[in-house]
Amino acid sequence: MKQIKTIVVFWMLLSSVYGQELLLKDGETLVILGNSITQAAVMPFGYVNQARNALAIFYPERKISLVNAGISGHKAPDMLDRFERDVLQYDPDWLAISVGINDVWHGFKDGHTRGGGPKGVPLELYRAKVTEMITLAQATGTKVALMTTTIIQENLSSIENQKLEPYNEAIHQLAQQYDCLLIDQNHAFKRVLEPLQKPGMNGKGLLTTDGVHMNEKGNWLMASTLLHAFGISEHRLKQGKDLVWQACTKDQDRLDAHLARYNEVNYEVGAPRSDEHRVIFYGSSSIDRWNLADDFPEYSCLNRGIGGEHTRDMVRRFRQDVRSLEPAAMILFLGSGNDFWPDNRYSIAETKSNLLRLSRIADSRGIKVALGAVSPVNDYIPGKDHLLATHPLDKVQALNTWIETLCRENGYTFIDFYSPVADSAAKLDSTLTLDGMHVNARGYQKWQTTVHHAFEQMGITPKKPIQQ
Hints:
By secondary structure, this protein is an alpha/beta fold. The protein is built from 18 helices and ten strands. The chain has helices at 2-18, 36-39, 47-58, 76-81, 83-86, 101-105, 123-139, 159-177, 185-193, 216-229, 234-269, 285-288, 292-295, 311-321, 348-364, 387-390, 393-410, 441-458; strands spanning 29-34, 65-70, 94-98, 143-147, 181-183, 279-283, 301-305, 329-333, 368-372, 413-415. A five-stranded parallel beta sheet has the order 2-1-3-4-5, sandwiched between helices. Strands 7-6-8-9-10 form a five-stranded parallel beta sheet, with helices on both faces. Helix 8 (159-177) links the parallel strand 4 and strand 5 (181-183). The protein is globular.
């Protein structure tokens, strides 16, 4: 604890020395809208997570939330189509738009070696769509930052990079025209790569894994360029890089431990039988503690809960612990909500975004989605009165209303894990818990009934005996 306080004081003093005024204020939310480069940046060393950790280290007194709104393959028209869902509904203070790579790159598909093919986005259409996103955001009071693109091939003279030039010029013009913050990623990448150019050079490996998607160094360059635009000096970023990477390494170590938890058993379970309606229960400790074999012996249920996990890590391990197991359905339940713990530095917007992302990916893979309401806590136990302060009932209930609406609007199944275990004060019934946060066996019995009803709604049938 003393070491943490020392680091905090050091960075607060350093801030006063350099006189940096961060544009992101305490309590503000920044949504980062982008493509696969941004989507992948949810991972521990991705640029969004590196930026998140840097802000927590440089400005520990400020709670600043970064919401990752990246979807692989998306171009300007795609981002505009989902703008209400993935940006405006969160009412963010800031929006950073990263778009342009796919608009150009996809124009080279299907044998269009000079670009300009039908899968790309023409410059004027690109400009129009970005302009519409800017005006929609600014109309709600959201401040907008525009990122120029990174690169397509580390060989800067490639035809793909030449095709990017007018798109980046458009971003410069729009930033000036609409008074947007400019985050010049393209300039940052050129500054690093230009001294390294040579005939016949490899198009990848220095900052990218494939010429487009970032390695750890490329992610740091993107994160530091973004943070510099928001007001952190290059010198301070350079001095603090090791601390940021230590935080990212801690995130990676935790993720590795979570992935190791079910890695071997996933291999043993294998793919479902053709007549098997496999259901994965996915979440944190309330799932982890649930004896599914006892409560649902007639169904094919797999428990993939991990105690203490928050939604960011659920997104990170989804591919291994849900998607790869090819379930018929997923029940996603956050328990009492680890995102609410202050040390995790979440906003409600990020929790919603992660729930939306998990649901969308599952649904797109043909997995039926059931989302559980966050369960209540109480303050009845001596020494546990802090639970209502960190997990306030009004915020929990508001999130549950949002979850129920999400289910109704998208055809998902809503499971009410709140009401069956709440008392007349809307707190966790004292007879159903030992710690004020987790339910006991009687609480699980009440939830068992609600899950059986959800199975019926989703058309999940009992498993058939294996013929000997």
